[in-house]
Amino acid sequence: MKTQSTFTTMPAAARFAIVLFALLGFAAIVYAVIFHMGFAPGRLFLLMAAASVCSRAKVKFTRTSNISLLTAVVLLAVIQEGLASALIVAVFGATVQSVVPSKKMVLHQLAFNLGMIALTVTATWFTHQSLASTRLANPLSMEAVATLIASFVYFLGNSISVSLIIALTKKMSIAEVWLKHFACSAPSFLLAGLLSLGVVAMFSSQSVAVVVALVAIISLGYYSSVRLMRTPAVQEVGVAK
User: Fold this and answer.
1) pTM of the model
2) Would residue 239 count as lying in a domain?
3) Cα(29)–Cα(1) distance, integer angstroms
4) Chain centroid to CA 186: how far?
5) DSSP label at residue 238
6) Of 33, 60, 104, 239, which residue is least crowded by CB atoms under 10 Å?
7) Burial class (CB within 10 angstroms; exposed 0-12, middle 13-18, buried 19+) of 133
């Protein structure tokens, strides 16, 4: 979230929501540290490096909101890594995305972004794990379904959370904000999930040429979708994705 107002000038409901998101996000991180603290340092470092680069490669779909390749990197971490690693990658990427462009830190903006991303990634990771662990005759099909549904959960958690803060800040209807400014971004999240799945397949498939071609096609579709999603701006509020 990005806002030109100060925390004290925001409506009380918006301030309460920001604090609540920050606390729940912190609780999600503590849970991951206690119960899911395990990761491969090498892969984690590569994902963090990718998150740092991709957090800056973003495309606006409103004047103040954007989506970037960071979404695909986070979903890749969700698919390949444990909850702790996925949270580290997401929180690191969101921090870079929130702080680096403006070269200053707005604490309530950062608190909301990190809390929101931690909650969203936790829900996304559990969704993917629950579905991917289902034993079917075709594991690849189940992985594709799990990735797409997890991507949709990521989209819902992200877009609804931001819509809520915008609605509380601007005293608007959350449904109006979501339908007008965020519903149209759903395809780009699903394509980001497919892109992350394609990257996984590229390093595990014997048909490398076919997978590379699919990744290229999905990447083009992903880029095109976020370029086309431009709607009128919601003033003074943005989001890290």
Assistant:
1) 0.80
2) no
3) 19
4) 12
5) B
6) 104
7) exposed
- Total tally of structural domains belonging to the chain: 1
* Listed residue (202, 163, 164, 156) closest to 180, CA to CA: 163
Q: Facing residues of 238 across strands?
A: 2
For 194-235, give the DSSP string. Answer: HHHHHHHHHTT-S-HHHHHHHHHHHHHHHHHHHHH------T
CA distances to 40, 114, 140, 234 from 150, rounded to whole Å, are 22, 19, 15, 27
CATH assignment of the domain containing 222: 1.10.1760.20
d(CA 144, CA 234): 34
Query: Measuring CA to CA, how many Å separate 151 from each of 2, 4, 16, 44, 166?
Result: 23, 30, 28, 20, 22
Burial of 112 (0-12, 13-18, 19+ CB in 10 A): buried
Is residue 220's pLDDT more than 70? no
Q: Where are the beta strands (DSSP E) in 63-219?
A: 66-68
Q: pLDDT tens for residues 184-209?
A: 778 778 878 887 887 777 766 545 55
Dist. CA 190–CA 176, nearest whole Å: 22
Residue 238: inside a domain, yes or no? no
For residue range 224-239, what is the model confidence (pLDDT) as tens digits?
Answer: 555 555 444 333 444 5
CA-to-CA distance for 178 and 159, rounded, in angstroms? 7
Containing structural domain, residue 101: 7-228
Indicate if the alpha-carbon torsion angle 193, 31, 33, 103 is positive or negative: positive
> What φ, ψ does residue 65 adopt, rounded to 5°?
-125, 150
